[in-house]
Amino acid sequence: MSGRTSYLAGLAAEESVAREYERGGYGIVARRWRGSGGEVDLVLRHGDDFVFVEVKKARDLARAAARLTQAQLGRICQTATEFLGQVPDGMRMGMRVDLAMVDATGRTARFENITL
């Protein structure tokens, strides 16, 4: 897959995941939010909680899940903390990190509140 094709496939995967969260009552706060340490694909709000979502796309869901590394999760957590520091009372709000996976057919799945 070329760089441009991969980029567009990633955008489509993120859009699909965002729509699923919206159907579940989550509000989209930001897409591809970039902090000094990295980027978070989706920043969502659900009640008083923020949810930071990393989206991974692959041929199948297992491969998509395997693409998240410990180093990436560390950068996501650092970036999430930076985001919360910029929101009024953000450091007092609940937060979690989710991994959303998309396979080649567009099927999605997610793991909520992930740790590695």
UniProtKB/TrEMBL annotation:
Enumerate the GO terms in the molecular function aspect: nucleic acid binding
Q: Where, by residue number, does the polypeptide cross the bilayer?
A: none
A Pfam match is UPF0102
**Family designation:** Belongs to the UPF0102 family.
**Protein name in UniProt:** Uncharacterized protein
